[in-house]
Amino acid sequence: MYGWIKITTIFLIFGLLITVPAFAQEVTDDDLGGEGYGEKALLLELEVLNLSLFGFLVILITSLIVKQKIYKTNVAWIYFLFAIVLYGLTRFFYIVSDQGIIPISDDTLEVFWHLIFFNSLFLFLISIKDIVKKSQYIKPRSLKRCLSICMISTIFTISLFFLAKPLDEVFVSVFSDSFWAKIGIQHLIAFAFSSLVAFTLIEIRSFPEQYNSHFTSPLVIVFVLFVTYHFWELLTESLEIIVISEEIIEQVEQIFVVPIFVVLIFGIMHLKKLIIEVKLQ
Length: 281
Description:
mainly alpha, 10 helices
């Protein structure tokens, strides 16, 4: 079963890389003035690829939680699933705004998708803390409390989709020309928060939890990518130390997201295989 899932994942990735460019070209022909496949098409291709990988990852984690019932051992997995879902929603928020479904300014887009990202990081951090508690034989949070926290985070995230457009003009007038916008406060917070989670993951890798290394090793890579991603945003969008076109900046950002989802997918598949093997012993 594990080999079949791996083959399916590889097929999905390469299939999307082959078929999505044609779809992106067709969608963006009018926007590009008939010039054909270009920078906007590539951005759309990467976004569709990322959302597809995100959907596959959610299916894998849900299967791991429901079929293997690992939440009975530690509710950290519930937090982890919701954290992944919220992170996926950052990409969805970005694409619906970029395609004009939610027409908002770039400044509002940047801050609002970062708010969703912070919400996701918050759940990631709780998940990691619960793993630490389990490793130290401290009783983690109850399932009821876990679900309550996850639902509050999800409702907050969904509300941002509905509030973005009504608050756009007010937000632009208050934030766009402020000191905080010029220093890229959202990027600084994201960089610091991602670094905190990455260092926390490195610390718990040596704890004697059975699945710690299989859970944390891929996440260390993921959060190093998060840190690099937001450091890139800080250098190019806020401080403008690296001056290049907005399209190239966005393409590089999307290229960071692809390996994040790929690493998580293969990490979860490896963890699932380990859990099944342990149960069979």
